[in-house]
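Internal QA ticket QA-208
Title: Verify multi-chain structure generation after dependency bump
Assignee: T.L.

Test input:
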Amino acid sequence: MTVYTPAEVVEETGFTLDTLRYYEKIGLLERVERNAAGQRRFTEQDVGWLGMLRCLRDTGMPIAQMLRFAELTRAGDHTIPDRIKLLEDHDRRVESQIDNLLERKRYIRNKISYYRSVL
Amino acid sequence: MTVYTPAEVVEETGFTLDTLRYYEKIGLLERVERNAAGQRRFTEQDVGWLGMLRCLRDTGMPIAQMLRFAELTRAGDHTIPDRIKLLEDHDRRVESQIDNLLERKRYIRNKISYYRSVL
DNA sequence: GCTTGACCTGGAGTTACTCCAGGTGCGATC
DNA sequence: GATCGCACCTGGAGTAACTCCAGGTCAAGC
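Actual output:
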């Protein structure tokens, strides 16, 4: 059973050490193990879960909702339909985020073209 | 010359009234006109500029950089090359934002499929 | 035996809003 | 002509999601 030091998890997940501590504090990460000196030792599962969190965060899910997802996950397999619902709702928001970005990008490109034309 | 009330600008731009006041306070909007009673009256140009700000904000540009863009715009036409540079740099960041979102979306879809498969 | 480096904690600071309390001016209503 | 509601005003406190910092621990290398 492999364990990860804080530095390794930072490397692996792209979260900062401060963010990892923050996520633990607010309950997004459950009771991370400690070694004799009180330093964090993360498990494989922790790292996997952090991968999911990174995905949700990068797609703009608020922490309150990530917490809800975390609670569902801890509650056991009978919450899987709820989790599907949550992720499907989120997926639709990601979809419209992408559409919005594509449109904004066109605006920016137009602006650049305009600026080029007046030079 | 048309003027816009705060409520109209909110309607038109999608910013909240609080955000409009905030943007004026920090200098993203320059000295908005007032009527005799001290209430804001926005010009056509204000609304146009807010359209640009909305685009930059929605694509994740930090306020500090929007302020820089505002200053360049106020400084006159000789800053157009700088503005092009700024927007091109930003455009690249938007591009990679979109790529990132598309990848995260695949991850979410996979997760949903997985959940479906274990039901 | 001392320093260096990775880690710890609690708490203050930052960004970009968002909300609220208390107040003004104006058109419509009693 | 007093009053009501409403859209607006200001200054300041509150929020989300980190981010930074001061001061401290502990094992490892010189």
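Spot checks passed. Residues 16, 18-19, 22, 26, 36-39, 57, 62-64 of chain B lie near DNA strand C (CB under 10 Å from a C1').
Status: verified.
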